[in-house]
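Question (not urgent): is this output format expected?
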Amino acid sequence: MQFLRKLFDTTKKDVEALSPLIQKINSMEAQFEPMSDDELKAMTPKFKERLANGESLDSLMPEAFAVVREVSKRTLGMRHFDVQLIGGAVLHQGRIAEMRTGEGKTLVGVAPLYLNALSGKGAHLVTVNDYLARRDAVWMGPIYHFLGLSVGIIQGQGEENDELGGSFIYTPGASHNDPRYVNLTESSRRDAYSCDITYGTNHEFGFDYLRDNMAFSEDNLVMRELNFAIIDEVDSILIDEARTPHIISGASHEDVSVYNVVNKVAKEMIPETHFTADKKNHTANMTEEGMDFAEQYLGIDNIAADPKMFHHLNAAVQAYALFDKDIDYVVRGGEVVIVDENTGRMMFGRRYGNGLHQALEAKEGVTVQRESQTVATITFQNLFRLYNKLGGMTGTAKTEEDEFRKIYGLDVVCVPTHRPIQRADQPDIVYKTMEAKFRGIGWEILRLYTKQQPVLVGTRSIEMTERVSARLTGDMLQKLVVTQRLRERVEVKKDIKGDLAKDARAIYETDLADIQRGVLSALLPKLEMSGDIFSGDWMDWCLEQWKLPAENQEYLLEALKHGIPHNVLNAKYHEREAVIIAEAGRKGQITIATNMAGRGVDILLGGRVEDDLVKLARSHVEVAQDGEDEYGDTYASYRRGGQERAAPPLPLDDQERRAAAEEVRALGGLFILGTERHESRRIDNQLRGRAGRQGDPGESRFFVALEDQLWKIFNANMMENPLLKAWPPMEEVSAGFLSKMILKTQERIENHFFEARKHVLEYDDVLNAQREHIYGLRREILLGKDVRPELRAQVQEMVAEVVQNAWMVEEDGTHVYDHSVLFEDLNEIFPLVDYATLSDLEQHQPGPDLVAYVQKLALQAYDRKIEDNTDELMRMIEQQVMLHAVNDHWMTHLQMVEYIREGIGLRGYGQVDPLVAYKRETFDLFQTTLKNIRDQAVRTIYRAQIQREAPAQAEPESFSPEPMMMRMEDEPEASSAGGAAVATATASTASLANVDWKKVGRNDPCPCGSGKKFKSCHYPQLRADGVI
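Got this back:
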């Protein structure tokens, strides 16, 4: 397979094909350099005019790119390299540009964004966090502004960042209290999206798309057509988070105390006896013994007969079987916070569905929050396929090219680097046990700190960062040095014999944390070794092992006495983290971070130059370490036996940084130390890519143990291999066959997850088609489509069905037509009593004649409704009635689809393809949903009346309420200030008098015409009055 990929890889041909274009752009440089600023600014109107006259964007590309390059030189002092222009061309073509770290991807996106924005349809730059969205827009803003294009910024506002949030427009010279927001002016969401170019995060684009499709007024729409988008870190968004659903929900009234009850049951269950867990496929199932145990514990006869209880118990079992604290989630501030499995980043505001999050809350003993009812939902996978054209850029995409091509229609082009890569990727070091691996990691970090070469230690979980950090205290390092030297004498020099060798082996094969100081003090003199670890003998031995000069001894001595000073980053995305990760290139700096901490920020050798961002971040860090900042747990800097450092390193001026950078280059550049392999090669490559930016030297090495999570998933029985059983517990290996096993395992996992995502997509496409139909229908109505002809047709269709349903079956099986039933049923739809009597109906025989008669009466009633209101008001009523009907039943549809999806796998036991069954059942459900939308709209339109509201008291100008989520049935109707008309639904006393309330289902639309469900409207009062 790898051979075939290389054989059919067209990257080299793609780059060569773009060479003539780059040469053409370079030849135009002399043409645009002599131009004045005004002449350059005039190019944008000329490009737009040529585009309007029929020229294509492709034909404009060479000139547009050349203009952007010249403007970039004048405004930012940055000239696009040829490889950056290649990357820009790839993005314009709707492909993915794989570019190494430090190649300037921020600047690469400017030219294709400018070119595609010329069409007037807008262009989006999608990035992974609010900080990067603001930073990049402000950084590149001068180019766009010079060329006459407007730039908008869309930000969220959540616990995961310290951005202000909101929406802004780039305005040069604008002041702001927050120095980060200088040159930005606050704006409405709609104005920000109306700009030529909009920067924002994938999350905000997703939620705004959903909000637009819940709006009840055209004035509430904020987004334009989804025309062109460049996705930064495209692998993270379209692969790692592809299946992340964006959900807007309303409150549910379900009792959550049941989760605490089933948690007690799950807590007592025994793994493999009461339930089985498959972490590879992320599933857990109760056994027969488990169900018997649960039934006995809960005192019920058959748990399978209680689907809700079974659902809650299954969620509780999954919480214990599949989810580990500080790996899959953390508890912060009394809440369960999800940790992204690929990035290690805490995902504030995200919640697992299907009751799983509530089960985790019960497991951890925090307050169990209510489940929510889904109002609208979409995944990134489906959102970004809505764009007319899509491009992406990242440092690692080639290993996932098959998925990009098959799901998104995107191929990957590897763009050459501007300077040759000098990073040395060392072979993996493999250990048998976790203890041996941690010793290897600690020994390597001690070597590098003594050498003063900066190190970035990459981990896949918060738990791993804490475990590595705990190994860097003075006490642990002293024990490490002693055990390393004992092992060398026993296994390499072999100058210790007999019982002393056994004693020495027993010590170095014991976990470091369990080694007693007294045991060491007693043994070392017997071996003619000094008991003073800080003596010259021990220092000389360490330096000799590492081949380091004597002048490095002071750093080794400091580390052994006080521990290695280091930074720990548990990824929350805000600029404090970005500044700290940028400092990872300082001489002697040790930074332990989850794999994706600070992604999007280059690590500069020597450290970061002082600027406003550094000053702001330093002040935040100092506050955090005083314990007064909510982000204090994100960053910790340790020195002297684990005590926190007073402040981060002092920033440098440019001259100091350049000198420091040369010093670090001489030491070998940044060293990337991976603490374990990830399931995806792409994540490993991302970590490696943090070193060696723009031709700088660097190194990378992964430390792997056979007890790592990677092996547990796909090679659980690997330790049964006779060769591995004989492997000494503390011995390290660089065997090629083990490295190949790692790569093969990663490929198997990648293929497994790709097939899983592709399989899930087949299910998603069914709902996606239905979503597009419903959202398209809503958008047409919202933008002013005349729904009256459709409503009149639906009235005729519905009353024809009612006429047909009036046939009754007697006890002897004969069919009898009951005109009285017809009369009652029609009165529930429209006020038939005002137009005909029962005897009038009885004069018409069942069939086409009766259908035509009642349709005529229904349309007469409709026309009377129009006469009673102005045409304008009636059209507003029709619009609101249709929108509410669509919203109400789409919510119910989403809930029902979830129920179908949850149990569809069981169809396989009946020799039925689950996917075929799912398509059939959801199709039938969707037809029912469309029918219910029609029925509610028809029933409501006859009862809707206009009420005038008194003008609302004007709010102070400074008051700007935040949008709040509410239940859809409680959402206020479309309104405006000044006593405007508000569409509401009421029912006449005459029509309600004919209602047989006992026949109305709790989930049916209330006969009063309010648009609410019966259980949320008249049901409680009628129940209290004893009517039902």
